[in-house]
Design a protein that fits this description.
Order of helices and strands: HEEEEEEHHEEEEE
CATH architecture: Clam
CATH topology: outer membrane lipoprotein receptor (LolB), chain A
Mean pLDDT: 84
Largest sheet: 11 strands, antiparallel
Low-confidence stretches: 1-24
Structural class: mainly beta
Number of helices: 3
Length: 177
Amino acid sequence: MVRFAPAFALAALLGACASLPEAGGPLPGGFELSGRVAVRHGKDPASGKIFWRHSDDSDELLITSPIGQGIARISRERDRFRLVTGDKQEYHAADAESLTEQALGWPLPLAGLADWVQARASPGRPAEMSGDADQGMELRQDGWRIVYEEFQGGRPHRMRLTREDLEIRLIVDRWTN
């Protein structure tokens, strides 16, 4: 299995694919967001920008370096996942966690993330929610701990996802429905 250090992965992955297709009409059951992401896997830190278009049937997620160089493009069409790196290596897997573990060396919890970024648990799976948007909120699901550190306009603005030796910090700068 190929593993890259997160810093290398966040700097080298998506060169030819540094932007998402132009926004279209409304996304059924979906959203678009852009923001900043920091990942720490063990002692290896990395940071970058994130652009994500999510709908019920698909996901298109682009991670770039802080200066905008493409790092990784993760796409989902129904139940098919694909990751393309900046050096045009392509990976396929049955789920996003396996895919990102294989290509980047750490799992991205895409299955729950679409709900978690909206401050809700994924339906049909056990979860614990505590607190509120004013005092601080925390969600635990699928072995992940999601701490909502700040809300803006009723939506999560700053959040931290942790599991074992992996921490993902996300700051959402822009939401679009």
